[in-house]
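Input record, target 12 of the design panel.
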């Protein structure tokens, strides 16, 4: 199984993780300070813009993450770090409000 590269822009840190790892777990592994709240995909405090080198770099958003993003008016490319799980390829995370 190939590892997934996750790069955090701002703190400029990169980590390689197993598929299925949440972006929050990847951030913690990389030593990135992340503003978090409930960690269940309901509060939206860890929303960030995520870009992958492949359309399937992340698993699709499930409820309650999708509902939280919709409620916040966040669309294309925004995900919650506590809920978004990596699948393959390379993922880049940008989020000035959540990444320290």
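The sequence produced for target 12 reads:
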């Amino acid at each position: 199984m190939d590892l997934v590269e996750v790069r955090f822009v701002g703190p400029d840190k990169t980590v390689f993780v197993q598929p299925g790892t949440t972006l929050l777990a990847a951030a913690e592994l990389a030593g990135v300070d992340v503003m978090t709240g409930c960690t269940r995909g309901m509060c939206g405090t860890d929303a960030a813009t995520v870009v992958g080198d492949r359309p399937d770099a992340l698993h699709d958003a499930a409820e309650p993450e999708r509902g939280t993003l919709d409620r916040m008016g966040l669309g294309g490319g925004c995900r919650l770090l506590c809920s978004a799980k990596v699948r393959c390829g390379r993922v880049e995370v940008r989020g000035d409000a959540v990444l320290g």
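Residues 4-94 form a domain with the Ubiquitin-like (UB roll) fold (CATH 3.10.20.30).
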